[in-house]
Specification:
Strand order of the largest sheet: 1-2-3-4-5-6-7-8
Strand content: 15-25%
Shape: globular
Radius of gyration: 17 Å
Number of strands: 8
Structural class: alpha/beta
Length: about 260
């Protein structure tokens, strides 16, 4: 089944509200691993609104599974990635005014820049992932860069209001996953996924990992980090098991009823 990588950014968001030492995102990462997470993700933003440089350094020392570092494709961030040397670097778009990531990286429109950054990170011994919209042109451009993995942006699916809109976005993701598989591209997905909408995504063939953060952190406020992580692992497992009997569309219709 797709493995769960827990994004611990918003543990740091709560901490930065007071600029003190708690809650500690490193402790949250360790609890997530104990609960079955297969990896930890964090986004070091240029404005340092949540994760700080020292958090990444401590995560690199503490994480026992795999550390995925999300960064913008800038010189400052590439240098920091070389310094921290996580298991994988994911290149993402970044807008200082956005509340959260608003869309996928425009690889097709910035092909040489992304290709150069990808080569540089791989030469430093890291795997490279590109966060892109489920669009065929972006998938093909991502393949040209030599990136090891692509992560499909599921935000439009997660934000869809009507069942019709949600189904259209799900079909778009399924089509992108099929195209990526035909391109022999390794495939992850994430953004906006929660216990209510993750199962149809987990049912899509070819997905290796789901990167989920805000909903787990939000649920953890009420039930604790280990339980919140375990419940997400269980939901992903259920979605993957249902995939052997139903299409993702049928699963979506079931959970929308």
């Amino acid at each position: 089944m797709p493995k769960l990588c827990v994004n611990i950014d918003h543990v740091a968001t709560v901490r930065q509200a007071r600029c003190i030492s708690e809650p500690d995102p490193v402790h949250a990462a360790l609890l997530a691993e104990l609960a079955g997470a297969s990896g930890i993700t964090c986004h070091l933003r240029e404005d340092r609104r949540h994760i700080q440089d020292q958090d990444v350094a401590r995560l690199k020392q503490s994480v026992k599974t795999r550390l995925n570092l999300e960064i913008a494709c800038t010189e400052e961030m590439l240098e920091l990635a070389e310094q921290f040397a996580p298991h994988m670097v994911m290149l993402v778009p970044e807008n200082r005014q956005e509340i959260t990531t608003e869309g996928g990286l425009d690889v097709a429109g910035n092909l040489q820049r992304v290709k150069d950054a990808t080569r540089r990170m791989k030469q430093s011994g890291m795997l490279v992932s590109l966060f892109i919209d489920p669009d065929r042109a972006q998938l093909d451009a991502a393949r040209e860069t030599g990136a090891d993995v692509i992560e499909l942006h599921t935000g439009a699916y997660a934000n869809a209001i009507t069942d019709q809109e949600r189904l259209a976005e799900l079909e778009r993701i399924e089509a992108a996953a099929l195209h990526a598989t035909m391109n022999d591209q390794k495939l992850n997905a994430g953004h906006g996924l929660n216990l209510r909408n993750v199962k149809p995504i987990a049912a899509i063939k070819g997905l290796r990992e789901l990167h989920i953060g805000h909903s787990i952190v939000s649920h953890a406020v009420l039930v604790g980090f280990e339980r919140a992580t375990r419940e997400m692992v269980d939901a992903i497992r259920e979605g993957e098991q249902l995939a052997s009997r139903y299409t993702a569309e049928q699963i979506l219709q079931h959970f929308s009823a």
